[in-house]
Amino acid sequence: MSDAIARRRWARAGAIYLLLLFFSILFMGPLLFAVLSSLKDNPAEWPPRLDPPQLHWRNWVAAYRLGRAGGGSGWFGAFAPGAVVPFEVTYEVPAELAAQGIELPQVVVPRRVPGAGPGAVRTGPFAADYAEVVGPSIASRQEHPDGSVTVTYRFEVRHTGGITVDRLPVDVEVPRGYRFVEATLYPNRMERLGRVQSWNSITPGVIPYIFYNYTRVFGENYSRTTGRNLFLTWIGNSLFVATAKVLTTVTFASMAGYALARLRFPGRNVIFVVMLFSMMVPSQVTFISNYLVLRDGIFGLSRLWGMPTLLNSFTGLILSGLVGASAVFIMKQFFESLPKELEESARIDGASRGTIFRRIVLPLARPALGAVTILTFQGAWNEFFWPLVVLTSPQDKYVLMVGLSTFRRAYGAVGFDWGPLLAGAVVAALPVVILFVVFQRYFVEGISFSGLKG
Amino acid sequence: MKEARTPGLRRPMLSDRVQEAVAAYLFLAPYLFSLVVFFAYAFVRTLYFSFTQYDLFNPPTWVGLRNYVALLTEPRFLTALQNSITFSVVVTAAQTAFALMLALALNQKLRGITFFRAAYYMPSVASSVVITLIFIWLYQRAGAINYLLTMALVYRRVLLVFLAGTAVLQVAMVLYERRRGQPASPLEPSLLVTAMLLAGAATAALWVAGVVTPVEGVQPVSIPWLNTRRRWPDGPISAPIPLEAIMLLNTWTTAPTFMLLYLAGLQEIPRELYEAASVDGASPWQQFRHITLPQLRHVTFLVVTLGLIGTLQMFDQVAVIGDQAPLESVITLAYYVYSNVFPGGAVPRVGQAAAAAMTLAVLTLVVVLIQRKVVER
Lengths: 454, 377
Hints:
- The complex is a heterodimer of chains A (about 450) and B (about 375).
- Chain A has helices spanning about 1-35, 55-70, 95-100, 205-210, 210-220, 230-260, 270-280, 285-295, 295-300, 315-320, 325-335, 340-350, 355-365, 365-380, 385-390, 400-410, 420-440, 440-450; strands at about 85-95, 105-110, 130-145, 150-160, 170-175, 180-185, 190, 195-200.
- Chain A is an alpha+beta fold.
- In chain A, strands 3-4-1-6 form a four-stranded antiparallel sheet. A four-stranded antiparallel sheet of chain A has the order 2-5-8-7, with no helix packed on it.
- In chain A, helix 6 packs across helix 11.
């Protein structure tokens, strides 16, 4: 009998784990699938595969070797002067074609720009101008009993000029009916019903091979006016704004929260009610006036430090978001939960309110400060609406989320170039995801502070 | 306490109360600057703009209620209003139910619960822009969602056999247990696991034997989730399909946040209540109905209020989706306001936008007040 009960308990735990696992797939699945697909040459392929060639160790080894052969390092490849890159491709030729004799493929180094996005307007040194293809020749052939032939072609690409190029794209075209079997490096695309095998670069190096879309996001987006690398600039902008907001919010929210929780003064209830009210009213109600206030430099005050307008400036963005009501609310709730005795005895000893706040209250408030820091950073990093209003031009003023939202148009103008789009999204999500994994406790505490105890 | 204080420590000039007030306002100064300039002033000013004609450049001219009247006859505003309300009601209901379900599943004393909690919360952490971009990709005609639907069609016979097998086995086992005098609820988890394992094995055997086969010649599903003007379901109660696609994604991202609130609420329910109830022979469903739900009433109030406030402001998803979906199918009040203040090449209609914004504010406040009344009752 007790055996049966134990068995039942195990089965019950199993059932619950199954359910939990199901929900995990539901919530993590789309995100993990997006991360996986951001490595693919074509994230919109049908049917979607779960094992892109970018995840096969054999291709990593090949990418490393070819990167070295091209004159770069194994991790970051290149096509440098003096490089000689050997390459082999294997096809299967059906019997009726083999009977007519094995033909050689055409090997071309094309002048190709990557994708449909901003990379397409870049002009740069092309590998095509410095590459010479030697071959191809038949390296080996194996005849099968049914008359079909497996043939391996070999060719070399040599660098003839004096300029290092970051990639060496290659197209190999075979006669109709030849079936691709394998190559030194697995091709990135098959075109024209399998007749053309196409490589983004046959000297990639490991990192640009696996993270091709990521190198594109970081490498293609340049400002047309200043020439700065946009994606890096946006990340820097977001980091700067989020850090500044964390500093101002932590400082001012703890001060305001302390006053609302502990001090008695006329107008306290009015301020609290207006604060609650401000948490309910959507930002689309207040943004019209806030836009005008920033445009006019906060009633002309910003002229004092030489800025006629605060639009398109981080100063404006930070000043208009010094401290949020929810942060004040969290701090107020937390201070109310602290015992008063310490402060009262310090008061009796003659300490001023500022000293009590700095020396006694703040050190005790570490958990709440942690929660406010994390939640503010997350909020500022993810914020979209208000930066979209304030920062409109030039492009290097964007924060990351505003910049990322322009990708949909930049990479989606003709069809969709999903690789860099997904890669950009993954990079943009990464900082808060890492923050969450490391400081999970603070997220959970912050949410229950702001919610339940209110 | 005050009597205990030695007179020498009192500052002579100001009374303690004045001092305290001064200190309080010094502490509050930065926040008050934010609250007054960027909220109170802004709110009053939007209210004022809603009675004027204004284009951001020339001074506003007073027009009285004309903007509000004009809104009532503008089709795009009415669409936005309808979309916002539908979106808000559906998403709030769905995410509240879903959040409670997740919290109940997570409220266990088992190893690895924190891992699962973290995994569920992940979509709430990432930004709406990132999530929306990923979903635009999943919602493509040749995207993963249509692919999964296609697979479901291809393997529908296999799935059906598996589900039917599970159901039959479960019923049989529950009846058997009851006849032996053992208590067994219809969804007894331990039996369900056994039923699923057995049904899975049986289905696999039938598949290998060639009795149950995947359907051949299924056309790939190519539902346009975003780029369509169609509504679903047909009939008086319906919504545009692209809006429903956003509902799905929004429920998915916000349910985990509210799950955390429910989880905290569940952990505060005294265990004695459940123990007493099971002594009295209450079934799990009765316990849920008469203990869990009433004890969670305040959390539910909070979740519904926050949900309604949040969903009424939905903007990011519409802005990011942009021309991937027809504007009428996805426009919300928040986006209507924005697009009238910054209409691209045209002249800004700030008055009308402000009137729409006030409608949004009033809607939010009414919703909160109704909620309060319901809870007080």
